[in-house]
UniProtKB/TrEMBL annotation, chains A, B:
One of its GO terms (biological process) is coenzyme A biosynthetic process. GO terms for molecular function: catalytic activity. It holds the Pfam family DFP. PANTHER family: CORNICHON-RELATED. It comes from the Eukaryota. This is DNA/pantothenate metabolism flavoprotein C-terminal domain-containing protein. InterPro entries: CoaB-like_sf, DNA/pantothenate-metab_flavo_C. Belongs to the PPC synthetase family. Residues 190-305 form the DNA/pantothenate metabolism flavoprotein C-terminal domain.
Amino acid sequence: MDSPLNSEIESFFDSAPPLNDRAAISEKLKEFIALNSSESGKGSRSPLLIIAKYTISYIHCHVTISFTIRRVACVTSGGTTVPLEQRCVRYIDNFSSGHRGAASTEHLIKMGYAVIFLYRRGTCEPYCSSLPDDAFLECFEVTKESAVQVCQPYSEAVKRAIRDHHAAVAGGLLLKLPFTTIFEYLQMLQMIAVSSRSLGPCSMFYLAAAVSDFYVPWKSMAEHKIQSGSGPLDIQLLQVPKMLSVLRKEWAPMAFCISFKLETDAEILLEKADMARKKYGMHAVVANELLSRKEQVVVVTNNGKIPVYRDKTSSDSDVEKPLTKLLVDRHSVYIKDSNT
Amino acid sequence: MDSPLNSEIESFFDSAPPLNDRAAISEKLKEFIALNSSESGKGSRSPLLIIAKYTISYIHCHVTISFTIRRVACVTSGGTTVPLEQRCVRYIDNFSSGHRGAASTEHLIKMGYAVIFLYRRGTCEPYCSSLPDDAFLECFEVTKESAVQVCQPYSEAVKRAIRDHHAAVAGGLLLKLPFTTIFEYLQMLQMIAVSSRSLGPCSMFYLAAAVSDFYVPWKSMAEHKIQSGSGPLDIQLLQVPKMLSVLRKEWAPMAFCISFKLETDAEILLEKADMARKKYGMHAVVANELLSRKEQVVVVTNNGKIPVYRDKTSSDSDVEKPLTKLLVDRHSVYIKDSNT
């Protein structure tokens, strides 16, 4: 680790306040990955799961062992905060409802993946993406007999949401890990990546979170709430080192990696997405424009740019369905190529 | 409006993007206030409601008309965002879960108030404050017979939450108005204050929202997402003009006004709270310190400083219960004094 980027990354992690619950997160990750890479996993095996073949060479003896291994995706979701004070009252945030990450997680689980959902506390969670914003208060009522019942017209959606969520968690197919700050997010992403190494090419990183580009290093941050009353405020922010390169090269070099590029200016979007793909060695970059992102995105790969549209003939379809389908197909090819 | 403060305020409002749904909000407010200031209001009258007496003097004839009028509180809750781009991807935010505003609203309604709950979209809502963060997914399960049922141990809390929320909304005692940005918040606060004028001293402003002190004027804001990649970022922010003075003096001069002061440094808290009380003419300022704010606060009035503690002998009590009780008592005295 002696390139300028690596020293920036080292200085970022050195400066970050340590995770409060690192040991508990590490334990959960270990368990989740063990469960989903063993034959005795709780979840049933889907026919979509690809058999991974590992060839062990030992002097003159070649043994090929075949076993099934569930694909595991780490889906990141929601925006990261950048605190402006150590005892944080104010922070910079990135706009993200978390809808894309939550909906994509549902589709990936349906297609046989186990998902580590690394999400911003309070943003949309899997199986809630089709419900109203304050689902809890809007979807239920208490009958005269003092029973809680689901209001129409939410009945079917609510049942499906609760049932599918319970099934995914109980089946060991969904691990939800919440974060708030950029410091928590990047430390947790590193932990997940390193823990997922054993999955080889069966691991996918689906990096839909809106990650801050700028931050204030912990050590140069004001301790207390910045006082108002003395005129305008100037804030100097450093660039967050680009962790995508180090994720690809060091943390999880065998994983299939997809990043997301959001712009408000459609003119520069595709070019920036392609630059990011090349610069960080991503297998695909999903380009989305703020206003049209729920209707269409463009998947940028080394084979070209593939537009993906929401199915407009169905009112309850989303763009995440064809998007995840396309990326899962690409992942299948990637696993196949890695094994030959 | 020609003082330096007033010209700052004018320039803030001139610069703000107009509210999308101003007409609909105005209609809702008018209806809610009419409902709660007429004898034929839907809600039942609580014995706690004070009879307001207005004396009409007309030359030599003095007529005293007595009629009941429900007290109406505007409770503000959650943090306001300050966009850094017009097509907003990044913004500055203030830490606030909205728990204090939500819990206080519940207590005020219980004590006979109607509440206009002006809250940050996505933060805690009244009747949800005692439930887990992702209440929707944690509190329910689907039975084998495909019915939705409440999991133990949430059964009673969930029923109470749903029932009380429905009763408050159906009874015309709770109007929820969500905001996101500082621009929306201050425009909506002004609308509420001006609409509440007819309630005279029966109107209360309980300003628990964490309002930004600094902002970027709309007209000098970047249109598109600020690009990273060219080194550190400098942000210059102007001070948000202090609207508390204008609320007291112009928007709602008869209302009983309580503001909140949050600091991380206990050393300066009480002094700053008392300065704010004097400067903005507040009837009370609630001083709270970031780490201890759920256990104790200090109510600063012109009669001195009154500490308020959570009742530690009861596990489900909160500091908002004794706090709202104290402030309602003060409001009663204020109404009485205003009528004599």
